[in-house]
Write a structure and sequence with these properties.
By secondary structure, this protein is an alpha+beta fold. The chain has one domain: 60s Ribosomal Protein L30, Chain: A (2-Layer Sandwich), CATH 3.30.1330. Helix content is about 20%, strand content about 35%. A hairpin with a 3-residue loop joins strand 7 and strand 8. The protein starts with a strand and ends with a strand.
Length: about 140
C-alpha cells in the first residue's frame, strides 16, 4: 500500500493499470516549478510529476491506455494565500493536475477534491482501491 498523509491544498494523484497491476502515487505541492524556490524535485509539480510517474510505471510494465487516475486534495486551506482574486493554490493544483493527465491521455475516474478540510490517502496495489480519509468527514473509497 502507498499512502500520503495530511493533504491540504496539495493533490494526491493515484494511477492504476488494472492489466499490469501497477500503481503509482504522486503528492503534488505546486502546479509548476515557477512558484517554487527549490525546483530540483520534479515529483512536487503537476507538470513534471505526471510524466515522471508514468515513466516509472511503464518501466514496471504499465501501458498508458490501461492507466486510470483518481485524485484527492486541493482544499482551500489558507484563504489569505489567494493570488490577486485568482483561484486558491488548491484549485490551481487541481487544474494543473487535470491538464497534465489529459496531455498524456490519462482518464480521471474518481476524485474527492476541494472543500476546506485535510485528507490522507491510501492506494492499494492489489486492486487500485483508493481510500480517502477526510478530517471530520470520514472515509470515501474511489
Amino acid at each position: 500500500m502507498l499512502s500520503t498523509l495530511g493533504l491540504g491544498s496539495c493533490i494526491a494523484i493515484a494511477l492504476y493499470d488494472s492489466r499490469a497491476h501497477v500503481v503509482g502515487l504522486a503528492h503534488i505541492l505546486l502546479p509548476s516549478e515557477a512558484l517554487a524556490r527549490d525546483r530540483e524535485n520534479r515529483a512536487k509539480f503537476a507538470a513534471t510529476a505526471v510524466p515522471l510517474l508514468l515513466e516509472r510505471m511503464r518501466a514496471m510494465g504499465a501501458r498508458d491506455a490501461s492507466i486510470v487516475a483518481k485524485l484527492a486534495g486541493g482544499a482551500s486551506m489558507f484563504a489569505s494565500l489567494l493570488t490577486q482574486g485568482g483561484p486558491a493554490i488548491g484549485e490551481r493544483n487541481l487544474i494543473a493536475t487535470r491538464i497534465a493527465l489529459a496531455s498524456h491521455g490519462i482518464r480521471v475516474t474518481g476524485e474527492d477534491v476541494g472543500g476546506g478540510h485535510g485528507r490522507s490517502v491510501y492506494l492499494h496495489g492489489a486492486d487500485g482501491r483508493f481510500e480517502v480519509k477526510s478530517m471530520g468527514k470520514g472515509c470515501v473509497v474511489l
